[in-house]
């Protein structure tokens, strides 16, 4: 799923916003990062630990980042809708 997202986000394909894949922020590596909008996109599947994710999210948000978590099944079932939701967050 990450590869499909990267194909849609790379090279400023989403409204001209630049994304980095597997970007490092402090002690963490995030799935996708738009530095310009301080937006992190995380694709979550069954492997995620909610306790660790909450602490990680709190740390990133304290540093001024917005975090958008997308479940893998949601991305698979409604890819176009998820991409539109990301676009809307970027332009707000």
TrEMBL record:
<dbReference type="InterPro" id="IPR007569">
    <property type="entry name" value="DUF559"/>
</dbReference>
<dbReference type="Pfam" id="PF04480">
    <property type="entry name" value="DUF559"/>
</dbReference>
<keyword id="KW-0378">Hydrolase</keyword>
<feature type="domain" description="DUF559">
    <location>
        <begin position="1"/>
        <end position="89"/>
    </location>
</feature>
<dbReference type="InterPro" id="IPR011335">
    <property type="entry name" value="Restrct_endonuc-II-like"/>
</dbReference>
<keyword id="KW-0540">Nuclease</keyword>
<keyword id="KW-0255">Endonuclease</keyword>
<protein>
    <submittedName>
        <fullName>Endonuclease domain-containing protein</fullName>
    </submittedName>
</protein>
<dbReference type="InterPro" id="IPR047216">
    <property type="entry name" value="Endonuclease_DUF559_bact"/>
</dbReference>
<dbReference type="GO" id="GO:0004519">
    <property type="term" value="F:endonuclease activity"/>
</dbReference>
């Amino acid at each position: 799923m990450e590869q499909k997202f990267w194909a849609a986000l790379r090279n400023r394909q989403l409204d001209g916003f630049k994304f980095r894949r597997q970007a490092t922020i402090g002690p963490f590596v995030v799935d996708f990062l738009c530095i310009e909008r301080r937006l992190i996109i995380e694709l979550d599947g069954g492997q995620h630990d909610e306790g660790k994710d909450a602490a990680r999210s709190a740390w990133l948000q304290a540093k001024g980042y917005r975090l958008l978590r997308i479940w893998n099944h949601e991305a698979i079932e409604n890819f176009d809708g998820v991409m539109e939701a990301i676009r809307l967050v970027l332009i707000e």
